[in-house]
């Protein structure tokens, strides 16, 4: 669930507003979007993935953080970094580790 728009890092591009499928954000006169409908967040990470300034944090839960829970600073913008989006980053598919896939022979014809 969306938890944070870090105003100090936001470049007011409104990409998060544009890509959110459930219109969680509202535009403001200052240019820094606000989380207006947090309960509508689907935890799809689209806003965090498209944020060119890594100024957003989406918690990987479908419920808001408790009031006493702190947002881990090293996690802000991490999703975008992990998937390899952004200048100078390797695409996540190139660094993914998974099981070795068997190489099968093509099916016989005829």
TrEMBL record:
<keyword id="KW-0479">Metal-binding</keyword>
<dbReference type="InterPro" id="IPR050572">
    <property type="entry name" value="Fe-S_Ferredoxin"/>
</dbReference>
<keyword id="KW-0411">Iron-sulfur</keyword>
<keyword id="KW-0249">Electron transport</keyword>
<feature type="domain" description="4Fe-4S ferredoxin-type">
    <location>
        <begin position="31"/>
        <end position="61"/>
    </location>
</feature>
<dbReference type="GO" id="GO:0046872">
    <property type="term" value="F:metal ion binding"/>
</dbReference>
<keyword id="KW-0408">Iron</keyword>
<dbReference type="Pfam" id="PF12838">
    <property type="entry name" value="Fer4_7"/>
</dbReference>
<dbReference type="GO" id="GO:0051539">
    <property type="term" value="F:4 iron, 4 sulfur cluster binding"/>
</dbReference>
<keyword id="KW-0813">Transport</keyword>
<keyword id="KW-0004">4Fe-4S</keyword>
<dbReference type="InterPro" id="IPR017896">
    <property type="entry name" value="4Fe4S_Fe-S-bd"/>
</dbReference>
<feature type="region of interest" description="Disordered">
    <location>
        <begin position="88"/>
        <end position="110"/>
    </location>
</feature>
<keyword id="KW-0677">Repeat</keyword>
<protein>
    <recommendedName>
        <fullName>4Fe-4S ferredoxin-type domain-containing protein</fullName>
    </recommendedName>
</protein>
<dbReference type="InterPro" id="IPR017900">
    <property type="entry name" value="4Fe4S_Fe_S_CS"/>
</dbReference>
<feature type="domain" description="4Fe-4S ferredoxin-type">
    <location>
        <begin position="1"/>
        <end position="30"/>
    </location>
</feature>
